[in-house]
Amino acid sequence: MIVQRYPTVTCLQAAALAAVLVLPALAAAAPAATARPNVILVITDDQGYGDVAAHGNTMIQTPNLDKLYAQSARLTDFHVDPTCSPTRSALMSGRYSTRTGVWHTIMGRSLMSPDEVTLAETFQANGYRTGMFGKWHLGDNFPCRPQDQGFDETFYHGGGGVGQGPDYWGNDYFDDTYFRNGTPEKVTGYCTDVWFANALEFIERHKDGPFFAYLSTNAPHGPYLVSEKYSKPYAAKGVPSPMAEFYGMITNIDENMGRLLAKLRQWGLEENTILIFMTDNGTAAGWRGGGKEKQGTGKQPWRGFNAGMRGTKGSEYDGGHRVPLYVRWPAGKIGGGRDVDQLTAHVDVLPTLADLCGLKRPDGPQLDGTSLAGLLRGDTESLRGRTLLVHSQRIPYPEKWRKSAVMTQRWRLVDGRELYDIQADPGQEKDIAAEHVEAVKRLRRSYEDWWKSLSVVFDDSVSIGIGSPAEPRTQLHPHDWHVENQGLSSWHQGHVRSGHLGNGYWAIDVQRDGLYEFELRRWPDHVDEPIEATEARLKIGDTDVSRPVPPEAKQVSFEIELRAGRTRLQTWLTTPEGKTRGAYFVYVRRLR
User: Would the pLDDT of 291 be above 90?
Assistant: First the structure.
């Protein structure tokens, strides 16, 4: 069932929101001051350090981000993981992503362990109302969903992006169906506009505070879909596709940031709200590489801007993981218009906010991050002696030294071999490992210790729960299959449409003893299409069953008695041509 609920973004509402940009802040009396600040954390997807005008990009138009930049303390040496899910797990947990079970964006390795104590759970335990809007990408089933991880109110898309496998079938960024606390809901408008509209509605309802709003856009992640209103001006200036669309998506984000800034001022929340803006990894489409970065005039095409860094999304070089982070909080004596140049990372956000807001963190695993409150307030505290590490695995099982960076204020050790003096050589052009053997040895020892501490989770899997009252009917999708190699992963809706011959298993945690129904489908249950198979097979634990499929059947069901505990689930559908693939959609419910 699809539930229609507001706010959605209609033309009239869009016009009303746009008016906020030009009307002066009006009369509404400021809400009573609260001893604890509100917190809004905005994170965009695949926008790199160079994809903001204030950082030196002469092509992109981001006036509202530039305004926030001028009002904020800016962490100029801030690092995340090189891809989506790992960054989000580290941000939510305050711990290195691999510790949380996350080192990929698919294949069952984007599910964050429910044992982590999240940022939202920390705020919730301290009396904050918590809301999440947009991209989650840390699990679409119990117990990994945002509503299972500390958020009172959630409105999000499935998977790692709009249109990916677990997302509602057929979403395309415009007039989509998203999930409100797990229930599908049809909306009107462009995805980014919808996320901001819903976040603003949440903020307005809880403006007497305290609240924590996590606003996580899927833009400007591909596919690069946006109204030509935003992309055409860039195309007209010689920006090639898809960069013109990528820039257009960022301009739309910037427009929405303007609405957010204006509303905070109108509602009297500007002074006592900690507003954070950051991104999740290096640029995906904002830099084509080659040549110099100052292009776009005459006959020379615009190649983008990467702030002088080497590498883009997924890279172990700084361009893959150094991103912007702005912090604005006037009432907290965080001075604006100031750069903080010390080495910092995503794992620092949770302890920093806990410190700034006076939160008591619930008992949980030890944090890797440290509070940056002193740095943000301009104290003499120094973190210059610290070492931070990132890597990009994106494979079923982590490999030592793979796409890794060991970082200090001065050094970058890349893949355990290459050494760069990041102060003298920010573009990481000259490998000087042979000239600084002792520094290489020291940094390698740091990595060895880190790797040893991570390796204890490599053989573990975060399991999807079935049979929980919190999710009475579970939809499983191959986005979360564990596979031998990525070629077998049917993680996208495009794979489903094409009939991709993939297969793998789901890591399952049966919550309660009982009789379970497993409904195997080729298409989601609201799509009236046949299963296109002659035989269906299901294996869970020691139970292995199969049956023929009647012609034109849309689904095949199995009823199986299960005992509580962790196991594996795998399915096979034999096509009329005699080939096999997994069931792309499996619906599970406990009958009794």
Answer: no
The CATH number of whichever domain residue 575 belongs to comes to 2.60.120.260
One domain, residues 338 and 394 = no
Phi and psi at residue 52, in whole multiples of 5°?
-135, 135
- 128 vs 152: CA distance, rounded Å: 9
Residue 413 pLDDT > 90: yes
Residue 276 belongs to what H/E stretch? Answer: strand 273-279
Farthest-apart Cα atoms in the chain, separation: 74
Asked if residues 490 and 478 have their Cβ atoms less than 8 Å apart, the reply is yes
59 Cβ contact list (under 8 Å, min separation 6): 234, 237, 239, 247, 296, 302, 304, 305
Q: Are residues 197 and 324 in the same domain?
A: yes
Vertex 461: Cα angle to 456 and 467 (nearest 5): 140
pLDDT confidence of 300, banded at 50, 70, 90? confident
In the numeric block, which tokens belong to residue 392?
A: 């990009």
162 with 187, same domain: the answer is: yes
Range of the domain at 222: 39-376
Number of structural domains (the chain) is 3
In this prediction, residues 296-314 reach a mean pLDDT of: 85
Same domain, residue pair 471 and 448: no
Q: How far apart are CA 27 and CA 261, in angstroms?
A: 16
Residues 447 and 482 in one domain: no
Q: What are phi and psi of 131, to 5 degrees?
A: -135, 145
